[in-house]
């Protein structure tokens, strides 16, 4: 330990406990990286066995926020909009489109006034034909 180190220790003493706490905080920060900050894998995403799907039949635009919360929790949502007025149904679709875009998910029309919203972790295969002329 040189004269400079002794002088610095006298002027601004470094407590070993503070140094350990600072290191622990830094390690904890490193472990709590959100899923959106992690690099995306190009491979197949494994879906856990506890994946759920929720069904909604909103009666007001305000209920769209609850659908968004479920999507953030990696749950698929089927939303039946037939109880909403046309303008509120369109607002709900616009809102959910934004949520799905932010989560890298998908949104599909699966029936008259019925949409399927899925987060990135849930894949959807196939299409539902909405034309009545096709058999």
TrEMBL record:
GO annotations of cellular component type: cytoplasm
Keywords for the protein's UniProt record, in alphabetical order: Cell cycle, Cell division, Cytoplasm, Septation
Quaternary structure annotation from Swiss-Prot or TrEMBL: Homodimer. Interacts with FtsZ.
Pfam families: SepF
Function: Cell division protein that is part of the divisome complex and is recruited early to the Z-ring. Probably stimulates Z-ring formation, perhaps through the cross-linking of FtsZ protofilaments. Its function overlaps with FtsA.
Name the UniProt record assigns to this protein: Cell division protein SepF
Stated family: Belongs to the SepF family.
Top-level taxonomic group: Bacteria
Predominant subcellular localization, coarse grouping: cytoplasm
rRNA-binding in keyword set: no
This protein's record includes keyword Cell division: yes
Any GO BP annotation: division septum assembly
Originating species: Anaerorhabdus furcosa
Compartments where found: Cytoplasm
């Amino acid at each position: 330990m040189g004269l400079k180190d002794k002088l610095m220790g006298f002027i601004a003493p470094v407590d070993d406990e503070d140094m350990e706490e600072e290191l622990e905080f830094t390690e904890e920060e490193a472990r709590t990286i959100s899923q959106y900050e992690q690099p995306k894998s190009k491979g197949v995403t494994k879906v856990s066995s506890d994946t759920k799907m929720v069904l909604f039949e909103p009666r007001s635009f305000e209920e769209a926020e609850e659908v968004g919360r479920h999507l953030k929790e990696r749950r698929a949502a089927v939303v039946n909009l037939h109880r909403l007025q046309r303008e509120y149904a369109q607002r709900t679709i616009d809102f959910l489109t934004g949520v799905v875009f932010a989560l890298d998910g998908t949104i599909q029309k699966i029936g008259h006034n019925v949409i399927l919203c899925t987060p990135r972790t849930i894949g959807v295969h196939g299409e539902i034909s909405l034309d009545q002329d096709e058999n």
